[in-house]
Amino acid sequence: MTQKNGKFSSATGLREPLSTTEFADVIPDIFTVFTDADDIGAMTTPLPSGFHEPEASRLLASVHKLPSQAKNPTTMQQRIQEHYYTTPYQIYHDLTVVCARTISHYPLGSDEYFDVDFYYRFCVEVLLRELTRLHMQMGPVESEGDQSELQAQLLEDFTSISSAYRQGNNETISYIHEEEPADSQSPYAPVYQPSAPPRKTVQPLFSSLLGKSQLDPRPTVVGGDYTISKVVASNRVGARGVQTMDAISPGSNRIPNPSEARNSLILNDFFHPTWYTIPIPSWLTYKGTALKPPTALPNAIALKQDANGGNKRTTLSILQRGKHPERTTTSKLVDVPGDSYRSFAPVTDSGDAIITGGFKAGIWLQHLGWKRIQEIKQATKEGESASEEKDADEDKEKSKETSPPPPWPSKYDEPISDEVMARWKPEPVEAGAPIDVAALVNWDPARITQLEEMKRDRNDITKSAASLQRLISINLLRLNKLRNQRYRASDPRSILPPGDEEKNVYHRTAKLLTFAIEAYKLSPGDFDVKFSRHLPVLTEEFGGVLPGAMPSKPSQYPVSGNRRVPNIRGPYRKKNRAV
User: Fold this and answer.
1) Are residue 155 and residue 229 in the same domain, yes or no?
2) Could you tell me which residues are beta bridge partners of residue 27?
3) Contact (Cβ atoms closer than 8 angstroms) between residue 524 and residue 531
4) What's the burial of 485, exposed, middle or buried (CB within 10 Å: 0-12/13-18/19+)?
5) Based on the domain organization, do 152 and 176 belong to the same domain?
6) Are the CB atoms for 11 and 2 separated by under 8 Å?
7) Cα 289–481–516 angle (5° rounding)?
8) Fewer Cβ close by (within 10 Å): the C or N end of the chain?
9) Are 318 and 365 contacting, i.e. CB atoms less than 8 angstroms apart?
10) From first to last of its 579 residues, what are the pLDDT tens digits of the chain?
11) Are 147 and 217 in a shared domain?
12) Residue 303: domain span
């Protein structure tokens, strides 16, 4: 290996270590980042030890000509321990070799393919940024002869790496869509001069970027009439400099008249009136759980139309069965405690058929159904008897070994103290005391019914925490049922307001929850619930176009002057004409 003045050798193209140690001090930090981000095993992937390509533009082509099994393999981790890397190009060289050999084992579009490509681009960009930072720390260079050996080396490697590095192949799938217009030949066209044939509308269609890596030289195969196209960035904007909106619509010192015709429709240096009405983000307020009413479902809408007489099918009376004169395609609404649901699966309408579904089910029941039912009953009885014997033996063994735990904490079994009840007892009002106007305004006669129901349930409230919890659960289920009934009876576009009964149940439930929290001194730490710390924000987007003045249309007639055609007069009679 030969080298002259720290430059490339004509024989091998290898570089000797730099005389300065600025870049050598940064190499361990660079590989620390590479190792922490290595999820693909790039640091331990074998690579040929005797391979080196001095030209960065021909590196990928040389890598893909290598045999699959490397001779005398080594790894980047082993070379780090041996202090092999002394120049930035050596790091870029081995990183490209490892990632190019790894990505060839995965198909395009797989997660592993994108992971290898992302890791390669991340490492190369980190290396380029570090080279830029080191070059800027060394200060500006006035002439080429004043720069040091390290500055020349960094500049040369940076130019070589940045010229060969690309973000991707930028390939897209294209398709030429040809649409033939309808023949618009008029029947009155001349026979000797036929009209020109209609032109085809040719429209090129493109897909998004395929995400193919620059490390992958395999051709992208597409079938049919589709082809592969490449998206090439245009440098016209960079050559002309950065353009702003002032170049399109220059600023002016006066507000333009909307009736005046302007070359540009964009108003600069002025706010449009609609910009003041755009709402800013506001905090969400939780006023209640938003439930989707059952009437908004498609099956419920179809059922409502059938009930109102809409879309009613006429069938022959001879084909209708006595018990089921008319069948619908909507499933039956099933009520459960506290909720109701309807299956979204379609129901077969066999009302118009001669052999209906009920007739088929009856035949199946007579031949196979009863036999199957008996087998299930017999198997159930045998399983229950065996399980009861096994459970009895297990219970005897467990009762001897361990004692049952207490069913409820002792502090919740005690009744509520008189001190807590005294705080909830209303204060007596003396005769002749001043009337509280605020309490008089907020007085609601419906609270009397609520108070009577609370007195009726006094024993359950003051007995224990279990009885109070049971009473709260009953009220919550009742509230949910009333709300579902209201949603079912209202239109999906306008929900009916809650009635008096639903309001009373809501206030009573809220009062019981407040009483339980104060009576048993509950805190958020007593519950195994993780509260969300995210703050929801409601944002609104303004959709529209850039404001501007409407272009004026030229009129067909002049604005002022006589509109009559010259040299033409109206009807007149000649004077002094002999009769």
Assistant:
1) no
2) none
3) yes
4) middle
5) no
6) yes
7) 70
8) C
9) no
10) 333 333 333 333 444 434 345 677 888 888 888 988 888 888 888 888 888 888 888 888 888 888 877 777 888 988 888 888 888 888 999 999 999 889 888 888 888 988 999 999 899 988 888 888 887 776 665 555 556 777 777 788 888 888 787 766 778 888 877 777 666 555 555 556 666 666 777 777 777 778 888 888 888 888 777 888 877 655 444 444 444 444 444 445 565 566 665 554 444 445 455 554 555 444 444 444 444 444 444 444 444 444 444 444 433 333 344 444 444 545 566 665 656 666 555 556 566 666 666 777 777 777 777 887 888 888 888 777 777 776 666 666 655 555 444 444 445 555 666 665 555 555 666 666 777 777 777 777 777 777 788 888 888 888 888 888 889 999 999 999 999 999 888 887 888 899 888 988 998 899 888 888 888 887 767 777 776 677 666 555 545 554 444 556 665 555 555 555 555 565 555 556 554
11) no
12) 294-341
Domain match, 82 and 210 both: no
- Counting the structural domains of the chain, the total is 4
Q: State whether 218 and 318 are in the same domain.
A: no
The CATH number that applies at residue 128 is 1.20.920.10
CA-to-CA separations, 197 to 24, 64, 85, 179, 186, in angstroms, rounded: 73, 52, 70, 14, 12
Same domain, 134 and 41: yes
Lookup: tokens for 540: 């609104």
